[in-house]
Specification:
By secondary structure, this protein is an alpha+beta fold. 45% of the residues lie in helices and 21% in strands. It has 13 helices and 16 strands. The strands form three sheets. It has a six-stranded antiparallel beta sheet. It has a five-stranded antiparallel beta sheet with strand order 7-16-15-12-13. A five-stranded antiparallel beta sheet has the order 8-9-10-11-14, covered by helices on one side. A hairpin with a 4-residue loop joins strand 1 and strand 2. Helix 1 packs antiparallel against helix 2, helix 3 packs parallel to helix 7 and helix 12 (420-429) runs antiparallel to helix 13 (434-448). The chain is elongated, with a radius of gyration of 31 Å.
């Protein structure tokens, strides 16, 4: 549609130019010759030349105006606007986390599309929408069979049975392939997208792939440089050098960044003789920006006078991150106050997935999840925050961990945190000291992924209420 309107715009401009040229040749020049002195043909020629130049410029400006209007009506309105918005945001996307975020915000929420993003060479799912279509093992198996690792680069339209069709008119989705990474976008109204937009989408997708590959290579190089080593040392200085002595509370922590710098963080801050603040969080993305946000969060919490006001602490962190004006940077964080006199933990869980209390019962240890009661911090407007309080007992173990722990995968792509093995391990280790508890989990991680390279930072903190 856009290309057709663009051709029409150019055609209209050319028609105007040709009409003027014809009118000038047939009517204007003879009239000028009749009314001008015989000795002034140069004046006639100059007059006609100036008029012709003015009309030529006017026709070109008309073509530009009509082309822009065609682009707006075709690419920035209706269904095609969704892909235009996605392309615009993709231009400023520098990591897989950011890519996943705009897929969710634009394609899923605004466009009601289902998305599946697969590294076909590693046979690893980089992203999938939380719906029946993209979460179906039958569908993913069929796509793997239809589109192998050797499938050529390009953009392809998918029919109702996930085979290739000739164009968008009969398509129910489309596939972008570049460097053996397959991006499937399933959309029931694919035929309504302006065909011109697909070329722009594919070109921007390829540029995104090139960007993240370059950034990954630079990160590997930077991890060996002196400056990044100094940055890593500075970042570690924000973390507790050793666990403080807390009466009736034993503590241990584990921190292993994927590269030198990390977005993971934790701290322990005694408030009184019987109250202790525990915090563990994870900043979106990696690299310098994540490290800066991590340091800001730690410094903000450390300097807050009233640390018992957990809602105020979270609001202060939220305001500090937003004040940095870093695009799409946020944190998930768990922050809780353990009261060994009252025997309770009062907490705010801002979208951390793994904090849990392991408590002994007559039938063995049981897991009590410290469920989320707050949204992401630093990127959206926060609603009123109401901390949750949970009763504690002597011998209870509080486990906080970043998602790098639970999302470790085995050779079949099954995440550790979803397995019974993980639950059995932390239950069996709950009777041990926190240091030994963490060793058991770390050993489990390395045995579970078969010694393969980890994909994320690993951070854990364990607090045990002493008997």
């Amino acid at each position: 549609m856009y290309q057709a309107k663009r051709r029409i715009s150019v055609f209209i401009a050319n028609v105007i130019l040709i009409a003027f040229f014809t009118f000038t040749a047939v009517s204007v020049i003879p009239a000028l010759r009749r009314n001008s002195p015989k000795n002034s043909p140069l004046a006639t020629l100059i007059t006609v030349g100036v008029a012709f130049g003015v009309v030529t410029v006017a026709s070109r400006l008309t073509a530009v105006y009509l082309t822009k209007k065609a682009a707006k009506s075709s690419l920035e309105e209706g269904e095609t606007e969704i892909l235009s918005d996605f392309i615009e945001k993709l231009r400023f996307c520098y990591s897989l986390d950011e890519f996943n975020e705009i897929v969710s915000q634009v394609l899923e929420v605004q466009g009601d599309c289902s998305v599946l993003y697969i590294d076909r060479e590693q046979n690893y799912i980089l992203y999938n929408s939380p719906d029946k279509l993209t979460c179906s093992s039958e569908i993913t198996t069929k796509l793997e069979r239809n589109y192998s690792v050797d499938w050529k680069d390009g953009i392809f339209f998918l029919g109702p049975n996930f085979g290739v069709v000739s164009g968008p008119k009969k398509a129910r989705g489309f596939l972008l392939v570049h460097n053996k990474q397959h991006l499937y976008i399933f959309c029931r109204y694919t035929k309504l997208f302006d065909h011109f937009i697909f070329k722009s989408l594919y070109e921007e997708y390829c540029r995104f792939q090139s960007r993240i590959k370059t950034i990954s290579q630079l990160s590997e190089i930077s991890s060996l440089s002196k400056d990044w080593n100094q940055l890593a040392e500075t970042q570690r200085s924000f973390l507790p050098p050793a666990m403080p002595y807390i009466k009736k509370l034993s503590l241990a922590a584990y921190y292993k960044p994927l590269v030198n710098v990390s977005g993971d963080y934790y701290t322990v801050l005694p408030i009184s003789e019987t109250k202790t603040l525990l915090m563990l969080g994870d900043v979106s993305g990696k690299g310098l920006a994540a490290a800066l946000v991590m340091g800001l969060v730690m410094n903000t919490v450390k300097n807050i006078a009233n640390k018992e006001n957990l809602s105020g602490v979270i609001q202060s962190v939220d305001k500090a991150i937003k004040g940095m004006k870093l695009q799409d940077k946020y944190t998930v964080v768990f922050i809780g106050i353990v009261d060994t006199e009252k025997m309770s933990i009062r907490y705010v869980n801002a979208s951390m997935s793994d904090p849990v209390v392991i408590s002994k019962s007559p039938t063995g240890y049981k897991l009590k999840p410290l469920t989320s009661n707050c949204s992401l911090v630093g990127i959206i407007d926060l609603p009123d925050i109401e901390p949750t309080e949970l009763k504690l007992f002597r011998g209870d173990v509080i486990l906080m961990a970043s998602d790098g722990v639970s999302e470790v995968m085995d050779k079949d792509g099954v995440e550790l945190g979803t397995t019974q093995l993980y639950q059995d391990t932390i239950k069996a280790s709950a009777a041990k000291k926190p240091d030994d508890f963490i060793k058991d989990v770390v050993n489990l991680i390395h045995s579970y992924n078969g010694g393969a390279k980890l994909r994320d930072d690993l951070t854990m903190m364990v607090a045990k209420v002493e008997r």
